[in-house]
């Protein structure tokens, strides 16, 4: 398997390691093969193990990001309803006072953190002023449906601000971890490239060890046409279902399902979570990134050819109810 993206490094290295072991055995007392910079098969194995660790840690951190984002969305939805209630209550009972003129416009749920929070800070301030004032014809304190008081609102608003902080911290940790992984990928790629050159410089061109060198890039050939993916949430199974059209490429090897936590798909953070042979039913069931209510995950189905060429489908996004 050649290098085609972050997910291909470990399987590609797994092809190089036994080949390197075979080269060392062939060299006998003249070995082991050491490439420029002092790299050995043990060094490459260490890179492989590190990348496997990064795959696990990144998936965990990406899940942390999505859980935090899901928590934000739940609190936002609750507060969004409360500001609507508050505005209706003030207009219904205090329309004859200056307080009605101080009402904030209800923010859109899709607004950025700063724009979304500002109306709620204003609402908190106005609510406290109403409760502290003596208003003819009105007996305070003002409460919303279910006896919801300002103290509970302030606590819920503080929880949202804390959730935003947690979410941003999780994003930063993920970005740092991804960069660490990328640094190891750069080192591993250079080592694989230098290994191929060293083998070609050590043995004759017709030697089996040269002819069997694992590829570092896909063979020349056309990129396959993408398949079309569709998705649904299967409530009875508590899983997302992804179906897709068939590939007619004669060099089709298999299909892969890859995902990213959250509503945005990025190839730099995708993870392989499933594989199907051409003859299997074209359906994936998964709860990857969808373990908590309100969580969202994005998916693509990749066509993988025997030449190593690949192409991803359209992105499908699933939100767990």
Kindly describe this structure.
This protein has 321 residues and is an alpha+beta fold. It has two domains: 1-217; 229-319, Immunoglobulins (Immunoglobulin-like, Sandwich). It is 46% helix and 15% strand. Strands 3, 4, 6, 7 and 8 form a five-stranded antiparallel sheet that branches. A hairpin with a 4-residue loop joins strand 6 and strand 7 (310-312). Helix 1 packs parallel to helix 4. The longest helix has 53 residues, at 41-93.
Provide the descriptors you would attach to this structure in a database record.
321 residues, Immunoglobulin-like, 5 helices, 46% helix, elongated
Biggest sheet architecture: 5 strands, antiparallel
Q: Specify the structural class.
A: alpha+beta
- Average predicted local confidence, pLDDT: 93
Shape: elongated
Number of helices: 5
The sequence of SSEs as H and E is HHHHHEEEEEEEE
| Integer tally of domains | 2
Number of strands: 8
Helical content (DSSP H or I, runs of 4+): 40-55%
Low-confidence region ranges: none
Radius of gyration: 28 Å
Task: Give the terminus-to-terminus CA distance.
Answer: 38 Å
Tell me the strand percentage band. Answer: 15-25%
């Amino acid at each position: 398997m050649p290098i085609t993206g972050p997910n291909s490094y470990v399987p590609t290295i797994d092809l190089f390691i036994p080949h390197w072991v075979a080269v060392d055995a062939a060299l006998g007392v003249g070995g082991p093969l050491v490439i420029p910079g002092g790299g050995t098969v043990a060094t490459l194995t260490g890179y492989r193990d590190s990348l496997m660790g990064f795959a696990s840690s990144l998936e965990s951190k990406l899940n942390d990001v999505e859980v935090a984002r899901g928590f934000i969305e739940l609190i936002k939805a609750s507060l969004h309803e409360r500001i609507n209630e508050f505005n209706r209550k003030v207009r219904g009972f205090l329309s004859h006072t200056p307080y009605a003129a101080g009402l904030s416009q209800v923010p859109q749920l899709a607004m950025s953190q700063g724009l979304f929070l500002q109306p709620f800070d204003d609402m908190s301030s106005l609510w406290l002023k109403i409760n502290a004032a003596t208003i003819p014809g009105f007996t305070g304190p003002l409460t919303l449906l279910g006896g919801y008081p300002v103290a509970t609102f302030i606590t819920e608003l503080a929880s949202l601000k804390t959730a935003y902080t947690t979410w941003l911290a999780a994003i930063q940790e993920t970005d740092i971890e991804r960069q660490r992984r990328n640094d190891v990928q750069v080192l591993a790629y250079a080592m694989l490239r230098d290994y191929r050159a060293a083998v070609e410089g050590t043995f004759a061109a017709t030697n089996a060890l040269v002819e069997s060198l694992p590829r570092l890039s896909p063979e020349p050939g056309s990129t396959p046409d993408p398949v079309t993916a569709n998705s649904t949430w299967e409530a009875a199974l508590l899983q997302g279902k992804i179906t897709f059209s068939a590939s007619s490429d004669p060099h089709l090897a298999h299909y892969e399902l890859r995902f990213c936590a959250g509503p945005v798909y990025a190839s730099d953070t995708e993870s392989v979570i499933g594989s199907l042979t051409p003859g299997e039913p074209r359906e994936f069931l998964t709860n990857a990134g969808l373990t908590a209510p309100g969580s969202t995950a994005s998916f693509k189905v990749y066509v993988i050819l025997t030449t190593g060429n690949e192409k991803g489908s359209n992105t499908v996004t699933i939100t767990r109810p």
